[in-house]
Design brief:
- There is one protein chain.
- By secondary structure, this protein is of the alpha/beta class.
- It folds into 2 domains: 218 residues, Isopropylmalate Dehydrogenase (3-Layer(aba) Sandwich), CATH 3.40.718.10; 135 residues, 3-Layer(aba) Sandwich (Isopropylmalate Dehydrogenase), CATH 3.40.718.
- α1 packs parallel to α12, α8 runs parallel beside α9 and α11 crosses α12.
- It starts with a strand and ends in a 5-residue tail after the last helix.
- The model has no long low-confidence stretch (mean pLDDT 95).
Length: 355
């Protein structure tokens, strides 16, 4: 297979973890006989410094010509002050919109070798395997914003069509898994959530009658994610709730650095990135966890390139590396030995096999 992949390292640890994911993709290409054309492009805060735009037109064109986009992370204190005009996150929101990706899949699977990496009891974590489907292009992040000396306003808006399409993605995913879907909202307070609940109920009842649908308020969901995470299969929710809850869910696995994501739309082209931020405090030290970025590359292989065997091979290699004790600093207790980013990436490559 021939495929074009845009690589946007971004800021902070983004380029470091993305570099390891790229090496894994290159190894997959050699192992399975593919031709991946990987093109790096400026994005985020670094692009603001160099081009006065977090998403330069040249970068956008590279992305639109590609079959998939692999992203590291954006942001940092340099571009986050109260008087900052351009922010890296603006480029990310615009990229999602330009690519037409509206459903963000965030799988959370607890690795048996990492049960001790979480602060939650092992018996609660064993067997956890869930997927969040976060609506990505609507809600308060994209609403009108106003600011005056003594007042600020952020508008949250959702349309029926936006809710329908993300519900269908989540329901199809649930149908391919255990047939359970939880829709998360705040319908006791928010009008957008009342619309969300109504539309979700209608779509599942009319189009997916075999799916068991449960509605849950966001505060209850936050509690039950920690109390009984094994009960969840697929969870669908709006943009901001999904952003917050998936960061919480990462602690089930032991670290934010482990979790990948896939942002999908109506075409095969998707946007793939670990869910962690740019972590400027550890940038350049070579200690960032690359597993989330590598697992994001596996999602890229599966969803945009339809290379299931290759995706499974990469995921298995990550699992073997973790089982063999290759843990980065975020996965060990203070004073315990950890491995560098490059060591973790090399361990995955060494364990890649073609079945």
């Amino acid at each position: 297979m021939r495929a074009r992949i845009a690589v946007l390292g971004g800021d902070g640890i983004g380029p470091e973890v993305t570099a390891e994911a790229v090496l894994c993709l290159e190894r997959i290409a050699r192992l399975f006989g593919h031709n991946f054309e990987l093109t790096a492009a400026a994005f985020g805060g670094g692009a603001i410094d160099a081009h006065a735009d977090p998403l330069p037109q040249a970068t956008l064109e590279v992305c639109l010509r590609s079959d998939a986009v692999l992203l590291g992370a954006v942001g940092g204190p340099k571009w986050s002050g109260p008087d900052t005009g351009l922010r890296p996150e603006q480029g990310l929101l615009r990229l999602r919109r330009e690519l037409g990706v509206y459903a963000n899949l965030r799988p959370v699977r607890v690795h048996p070798a990492l049960l001790d990496a979480s602060t939650i009891k092992a018996e609660v974590l064993l067997g956890v395997d869930l997927v969040f489907v976060r609506e990505l292009t609507g809600g308060i992040y994209f609403g009108a914003k106003e600011r005056s000396a003594d007042r600020a306003t952020d508008v949250c808006t959702y349309t029926v069509a936006e809710i329908e399409r993300v519900t269908r993605v989540a329901a199809r995913l649930a149908a391919a898994r255990r047939g359970k879907l939880v829709s998360i909202d705040k319908s006791n307070v928010l009008e957008t959530s009342r619309l969300w609940r109504e539309v979700c109920t209608r779509i599942v009842a009319s189009e997916f009658p075999n799916i068991a649908l449960e509605h849950m308020l966001v505060d209850a969901a936050a509690m039950h994610l920690i109390r009984r995470p094994r009960d969840f299969d697929v969870l669908v929710t709006e943009n901001m709730f999904g952003d917050i809850l998936t960061d919480e869910a990462s602690m089930l696995c032991g670290s934010l650095g482990l979790l990948p994501s896939a942002s999908l739309g109506d075409t095969r082209r998707g946007l793939y990135e670990p869910i962690h931020g740019s972590a400027p405090d550890i940038a350049g030290r070579g200690i960032a966890n690359p597993y989330g970025a590598i697992l994001s590359a596996a999602l890229l292989l599966r969803h945009s390139l339809q290379l299931d065997a290759e995706a499974a091979a990469l995921e298995t290699a990550v699992s073997r590396a973790l089982a063999d004790g290759l843990r980065t600093a975020d996965l060990v207790a203070t004073g315990e030995r950890s491995c560098a980013s490059r060591e973790a990436g090399a361990a995955v490559i060494a364990r890649l096999e073609k079945d």
